[in-house]
């Protein structure tokens, strides 16, 4: 079947065979759903919606860190006040609620790799790591231990029967809230037990529902990407975890000229223009980070253009397998940053992606997420992490 047309082939008829709104052939009262409750408005509304439909709801909250200043910081999650908020919502809904202390695991699987990636010249995505190594591993295991049929979260992404006995992921109805970029690493096995009830809803409607459910978190601020950085300055965290990581070095133009010095490559990201600390007749951008030589490489804007990337740790959740792709590659849409729209590209079986128009500011460590088209409701086919280009 043509991958580009597969999403449209998933019809309401496939879902109509299910006995409940979550796609399982059993009554809601007989369906135990664990809800990952972060203490924010989104997961709270998910719990309220499912409890209102009569599902057997159990709330689970992960305690991931306790950095003092983050306890009451606007935009934090999974710590301090957020845990209290999740507990209060569960009490209001009359559902059981448990807090799981995963601080040590979060430190090992998310925070420390985040720090090492920056020192290696990459720009990591902790939200992907948290979903990949915490929420959809430890929480799923805990949900199974509780006898749950499903685990539901407050992510903005659409999941549906793929018409072939599995589940498929699609971009959310609200393009401004779509979180499909952060979920590319979800496996087929995990998808079978995951549900995302907010995928078809715009954020204003979710907040309105929170008010209708009389939830005190209705106007609570959304969590931030790097929720575990109390000061908002990731370099401070990295230097605390990895003393001496801010190794000074040279700022070098792509033509080989040494333009100045820097205090550590972890203070720079690909595409950065401001704060370079060098004077030049033309605007300069960070075009590469050479961690081995402690060099920040700069150049004109056009040097940021990238026609092709290679991906590591590729995860395929589309039809068939990655090895089944045509010899000449598969026309897809590729998204190299969460803030960009998917762009036309060609995916090859060796997990390389060629862009029809070169992408600018592509950063190693970021994800390249693959969709079956550029449509607003495109299906997620998978993705991987962008590998660094050879040092200049």
List the main descriptive attributes of the protein structure presented here.
six-stranded antiparallel β-barrel; alpha/beta; 392 residues; 24% strand
Question: How would you summarize what this structure contains?
Answer:
The chain is of the alpha/beta class and 392 residues long.
Molecular structure report:
The chain has 392 residues and is α/β, with parallel strands linked by helices. The chain has helices at residues 3-9, 12-16, 41-52, 81-93, 103-119, 126-145, 188-191, 203-212, 234-241, and strands at residues 32-36, 56-63, 97-101, 150-152, 158-161, 167-170, 194-195, 249-253, 258-262, 285-290, 295-299, 305-316, 330-335, 343-347, 352-360, 367-371, 380-386. The strands form four sheets. The chain has a six-stranded antiparallel beta barrel with strand order 12-15-14-13-16-17. Strand 8 (249-253) and strand 9 form a beta hairpin. Helix 3 (41-52) crosses helix 8 (203-212). It is globular, with a radius of gyration of 22 Å. The protein starts with a helix and ends in a 6-residue tail after the last strand. Mean pLDDT is 89; it is low at 1-16 and 67-73.
């Amino acid at each position: 079947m043509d991958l580009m047309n597969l999403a449209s082939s998933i019809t309401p008829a496939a879902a109509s065979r299910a006995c409940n709104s979550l796609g399982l052939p059993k009554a809601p009262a007989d369906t135990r759903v664990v809800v990952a409750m972060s203490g924010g408005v989104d997961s709270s509304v998910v719990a309220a919606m499912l409890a209102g439909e009569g599902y057997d709801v159990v709330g689970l909250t992960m305690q991931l860190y306790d950095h003092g200043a983050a306890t009451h910081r606007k935009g934090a999650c999974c710590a301090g006040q957020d845990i209290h908020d999740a507990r209060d919502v569960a009490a209001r809904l009359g559902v059981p609620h448990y807090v799981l202390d995963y601080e040590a695991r979060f430190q090992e699987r998310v925070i420390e790799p985040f720090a090492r990636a920056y020192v290696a010249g990459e720009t990591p995505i902790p939200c992907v790591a948290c979903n990949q190594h915490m929420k959809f591993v430890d929480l799923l295991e805990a949900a199974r231990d509780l006898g749950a049929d499903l685990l539901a979260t407050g992510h903005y992404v659409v999941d549906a029967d793929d018409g072939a006995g599995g589940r498929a992921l699609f971009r959310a109805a609200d393009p401004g809230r779509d979180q499909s970029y952060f979920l590319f690493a979800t496996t087929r096995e995990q998808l079978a037990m995951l549900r995302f009830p907010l995928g078809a809803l715009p954020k204003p409607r979710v907040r309105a529902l929170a008010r209708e459910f009389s939830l005190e978190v209705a106007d609570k601020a959304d969590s931030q990407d790097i929720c575990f950085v109390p000061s908002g300055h990731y370099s401070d965290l990295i230097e605390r975890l990895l003393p001496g990581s801010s190794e000074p070095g040279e700022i070098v133009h792509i033509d080989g000229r040494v333009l100045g010095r820097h205090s550590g490559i972890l203070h720079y990201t690909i595409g950065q223009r401001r704060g370079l600390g060098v004077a030049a007749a033309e605007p300069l951008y960070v075009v590469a980070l050479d961690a081995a030589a402690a060099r920040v490489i700069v150049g004109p804007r056009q040097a940021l253009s990238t026609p092709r990337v290679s991906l590591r740790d590729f995860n395929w959740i589309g039809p068939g397998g990655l090895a089944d792709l045509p010899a000449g590659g598969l026309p897809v849409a590729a998204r190299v940053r969460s803030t960009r729209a998917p762009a036309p590209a060609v995916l090859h079986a060796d997990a390389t992606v060629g862009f029809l128009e070169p992408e600018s500011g592509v950063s190693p460590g970021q994800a390249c997420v693959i969709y079956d088209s550029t449509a607003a409701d495109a299906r997620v086919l998978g993705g991987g992490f962008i590998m660094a280009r050879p040092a200049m």
